[in-house]
Design the sequence.
């Protein structure tokens, strides 16, 4: 019997979508206003879900307090009120699109969650735009 437990989190961050190896004109064509050289920000909503068998001893798939602490330590502390392009080393050579941010978050958390448990990250960049990553 598999069950999914989820934890919702929030962080605010700025970013700029662009490629250093492209001209400003090509960046503008592909990324539009998101290529603003002065950056722009989002109020990101994050949902991290863990799916697995219920532990018969504890009754948990995973202790949600532990999941909350992992998100706080590895995601919120690293991303909140940061410029992703400038302040977060994961994006030094990676365009901080919502898709790439979700994958980075998944990778940061995966090492801290039992491999027998499935991990899913849903990242809302706006209330209507979101991405989901479940690993490869």
Sequence:
């Amino acid at each position: 019997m598999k069950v999914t437990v989820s934890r919702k989190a929030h962080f605010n961050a700025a970013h700029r979508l662009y490629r250093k190896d492209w001209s400003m004109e090509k960046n503008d064509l592909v990324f539009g206003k998101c290529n603003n050289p002065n950056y722009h920000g989002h109020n990101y909503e994050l949902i991290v879900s863990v799916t697995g068998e219920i532990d018969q001893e504890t009754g948990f798939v995973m202790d949600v307090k532990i999941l909350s602490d992992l998100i706080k330590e590895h995601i919120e502390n690293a991303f909140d009120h940061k410029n992703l392009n400038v302040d977060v080393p994961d994006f030094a050579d990676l365009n901080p699109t919502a898709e790439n941010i979700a994958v980075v978050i998944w990778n940061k958390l995966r090492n801290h969650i039992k491999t027998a448990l499935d991990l899913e990250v849903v990242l809302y960049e706006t209330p209507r735009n979101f991405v989901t990553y479940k690993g490869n």
